[in-house]
Amino acid sequence: MGITQFERFFRRTASLDVDKQDLKRYSNFINHKIYDLLVRGQAVAGANDRDIIEPHDLPITPGLQVDIYTFSKLDELIGLHSILEHIAGRPPLDRALSDATESCLPRIGGGLSVALARSFKVIDPTAKNPATREWERAFQLFNLLL
User: Fold this and answer.
1) Residue 108's closest CA among 46, 36, 16?
2) Is the pTM of this model over 0.90?
3) Alpha helix (H) ranges present in 48-80?
4) Which long-range contacts (CB under 8 A, 24 or more apart) does 131-138 make?
5) How many Å apart are CA 84 and CA 57, to the nearest integer?
6) Is the per-residue pLDDT at 22 higher than 60?
7) CATH number corresponding to 3-145
């Protein structure tokens, strides 16, 4: 992953300084949250007797929709989308992903990235360089909600 884009993204989104060590935490977060969304999407597709997970099956909240849109605007300047295509893992599921679902995963990962960056400022408005403790708190918040 381009560490420069990663650093620039967090700096621009929430005035945070992150480093190479944070990259692994971030990548794991994106993979886990996308997996969680896909598991719920799989359940919705199954409840509707479909073998394919469509984008509308994913539990995307209005707040996450706004963050996806925000990411789209930021990404024009930063170029993180192509990196998220590699990070946004495609875990094995019981149902297949439609092409549309597959193609929206990097944008969803981007929206999750915006929400994550902003959550550090909610946890500590004075945060500049989130430490392990802040990363863990942010993850706890997302685990409660997604």
Assistant:
1) 36
2) yes
3) 62-78
4) 135/22, 135/25
5) 21
6) yes
7) 1.10.20.10
